[in-house]
Amino acid sequence: MPTSTRFLSLAAPLVFLAVAGVACSDGPTFLVGPAATDAGTTVDAGGLDASTTPDSGAITDGGPRDAAPQDAAPQDASREPDPNDPNVVCATVRTTLPPNSLVAPEVYGPTMVGCPGKLAYSPNLVAGACGAGWTACSAEQVKARPVNPIIAPKYHYWLGSRLWTSPGGDTGRCYAAAAPGTATASNCGNNTTGSMHLCSKINLTAQSRYNVADDIGNTCGQVNCDFNPPTFNSSTTVPNNAVTSGDFGGCANNETAGVLCCKI
Question: Which residue ranges make up each domain of the chain?
């Protein structure tokens, strides 16, 4: 074979190998392209997934909103006590009862509350015993209250003004009277430690007409006394034939009682 022909036949395989070499070196380049594209998709998906995190945070925000009603409790607790609540009206008098006493105020209406207690009589103490906006009731207010067995008192109560009794009276035959007047030896209540007041009659019997006790141990020396200022004052002697059945009584020294409070 001529020399030129031998050279060409050898050169052909070399060209093939060169092309093959290029194809081999370029092959990885084409494979990397799709891989890179997939990786980018993965990254984008991760970004999209991550973007949902704030949305889940919004759901978490519902927690504080749900908890918001709890804020109402401190507001309720911070409210001022109702001055017309019988337990508030009677708070001072209640301190004279035994600890943990279950004795409750007696409510005679929106403007009159009986505060059970065991106070020794003192005009100043009685005057300041009721809660704010309330004061110890007068004898006139007691007399004017409706007569109804439901509101008959179970306890003895001091009133706002000192009362004597008209001279010569007795249980069921006696009158409470305003203290100013001409004192006599028989002026029950004409002393420094007592006064006629509102007395319970739930424990009054024919056999026990004096020193009648209420349900917490206070006593009234006389009971069933009335109040009639135009006719009987602290100087008017009660006749022997008089009959009374009112809610006033007391008049012995060193008696104790609660306080009847009226809204100012």
Answer: 3-67, 86-263
